[in-house]
Amino acid sequence: MATPVRSSIGTAPVRHGVRAGGTRKLLLTEARLYLREPMTTFFTLFLPLGLLLVLGSAIPGFREPLPEWGGERVVDTQLPAMMIILSVATSAFSAIPAALAVYRERGILRRLSVTPVGPVRLLGVQLVINLVSAVVAAALTIVAGRLVLGSQVPAQLGWFAVSFVLGVCALFAVGLLLAAIVPSSRAAGGLGALVMFPLLFLGGLWLPREAMPDALRAVSDFTPTGPFGQALRDSWAGTTPEPLHLAVLAAWILIAGLTAARLFRWE
User: Can you give the residue ranges of the ABC transmembrane type-2 domain (predicted)?
Assistant: First the structure.
């Protein structure tokens, strides 16, 4: 009776070590692959940063106080918040669905299911890499905006962090839902764009929410991007985000995440 007990206890650390080592190797491999994709890093990191600096420098009106915004300038909260959303949305609706669709088509997810690493770890690694990319993009936006354009830094750092985490998780949950239902890697890009651009519009990328008609702004309040952008702007300006916006983001995380888990196919 003692032998099985000693065997199970003795092998558990080995099994755990194999899985932990496999996860680290997987993380490093996927990170290298991510960095080797120039288009991915361009659209998630450098395009939003470039747009921030070019638009903020080239359009004088973006640097002038607006009385209707209480003296706030476009470069203070609106423009940097929208660039953060653009970066996160690109990862959520383009990078994540495309990568997972390719892995499914090539049988990588199925083969991982019989290894100690497992396909769930690959999914987790993908989310971690894209989360790190979102954090880097946000940091670059804040620092470059402050140094080059004299933009504000987030006045309510705590609420900014809460809004950022909720917004990223909400968009990633929708991205996982797209990855769950996309029929092929070729369709991933088209479906991602079909979802991303309307959501960016409703989030205020092209038309600030203040300029939206009441009906359109009401629709925006219940999308993942509208509350994300408004919560970022509110905390950036030093006010507490509206509870409705935070609740909507949490609802998107729950509903889209659970639906993605139910529909996701490993092969």
Answer: 39-267
Of 204, 130, 215, which is closest to residue 171 (Cα–Cα)? 130
Categorize the per-residue pLDDT at 16 as very low, low, confident or very high, splitting at 50, 70 and 90.
very low
User: Hunting for tokens 């450098």 — which residue is that?
Assistant: 46
Closest among 148, 168, 205 to 91, alpha carbons compared: 168
Residue 90 near residue 196, CB atoms below 8 Å:
yes
| Tokens matching residue 113 | 């299911």
Position 117 scores a pLDDT of 64
Nearest Cα neighbor of 238 from 162, 154, 163 is: 154
Q: Average the pLDDT over 3-32 and give the result.
A: 54
pTM of the entire predicted model:
0.87
Q: Per the structure block, which two tokens stand in for 33?
A: 């692959």
Collapsing DSSP states into helix, strand and coil, what is residue 199? helix
For tokens 């609106």, the residue is: 78
- Domain ranges in the chain? 22-263
Residue 230 neighbours by CB distance under 10 Å: 25
- 8-state DSSP, 94: I
Q: Give the three-state DSSP class for 84.
A: helix
* Contact present, 199 and 224 (Cβ < 8 Å): yes
Cα–Cα nearest to 227, from 85, 71, 74, 68 = 85
Residue 88 to residue 199: CA distance in whole angstroms: 12
Q: 183 by DSSP, 3-state: which?
A: coil
Residue 34 near residue 72 (C-beta atoms within 8 A):
no
The pLDDT of residue 19 is: 53
- Average pLDDT estimate for 150-158: 94
Residue-wise pLDDT tens digits, 102-145: 888 888 878 877 676 667 787 888 889 999 999 999 999 999 99
In the block, which residue shows the tokens 């006010």?
239
